[in-house]
């Protein structure tokens, strides 16, 4: 592999976030491209990575052994991953494409969250959609893990994601063997585990020394997923570990996997993202129903109602909007951030839920900024007694466009009824907003903009 172009990632000193080896904060903005290695050729992969880098995605989640018949249907270069379905006999030509993608992603500032395999290939259970190929044992899982760790660990831009949409029950030894192999080949690599819908890796592996951060799949079952509750539970666990929602609702996927239902929209995508991050996630992962499967109308069978080609889906509005969340969080001190619902007098219910975050120390009035996400506009009182300064500056931030408006500057009242700015809000076209309160003395610029 080429010399690393990106710094390795590590868990922050406070155990809540990821940083680079130099200690710089890292906001995970991920995209879901499960079938990337299986269904795209090199030119198409370049187009995909260019688009995602242009939208400021810095992580791509992809599976080395794909779910959609990934062991028996060749990739776009005509290659299968193994000789004779044997994980101890990897096909060099297949993994040469993976080598290429690792280098191309790194050149664009993108980390790869690599799943060594989709979980269906570890389990000896019938798959609901595809031919189930159970090929892993405790013995060959370790060999395969070591192969991957030695080959890709030196690249520096790899995060290992075990699981693949499955709970580990009855197959814990196989997963642990794969982990052991990865650790032998890549001792410094970060690891997590991807479970199925409505679950978190913490339920199964939180105390495992190899699990560096937790991954939630809030899933696709309903409009209101209450993912903030899942994040809050992980955030409160001991020992402290970072957490994020690695699979929320997918834009373009019918609600509850039922094609008679309308699909999730960019508004649903934004709600899941801001709820999750403001509740304590160190980042967020986006997904689109046509992109995870790299759908090609007329060539691939649409799964779960996929209507667009993967190229058309790259232009879906939600994928371009989440860069504004990253910009917002990076425009204020990030590693001292914490969730704080005590700032809000009425947090609302379900899709009306408000979520607050700030910086500072728990139990101390030393915050220099507060942010409150509103899925809809309604009355709100914010506790500003936690602010360090006597003078406050307030802003509106539009999650849809990344624009911000100065709402005014005032003395710190200790408890602020949100100043309604209907003249500014009217006609902006976004039902959801972020209200930002800064300590004026901190000198922060407009939310979402770097100094």
From TrEMBL:
Apiosidase-like catalytic domain span: 12-335
InterPro entries on file: Apiosidase-like_cat_dom, Collagen-bd_put, GH
Gene3D superfamilies: Glycosidases
Pfam families registered for this protein in UniProt: Apiosidase, Collagen_bind_2
Record carries keyword Cytoplasm: no
Keywords attached to this entry: Hydrolase
Domain spans labelled Putative collagen-binding: 339-438
GO MF, any single term: hydrolase activity
Record flagged with keyword Hydrolase: yes
Family matches, as PANTHER family: ENDOGLUCANASE, LMO1036 PROTEIN
Protein name per UniProt: Glycoside hydrolase family 140 protein
Native species: Synoicihabitans lomoniglobus
Phylogenetic lineage: Bacteria, Pseudomonadati, Verrucomicrobiota, Opitutia, Opitutales
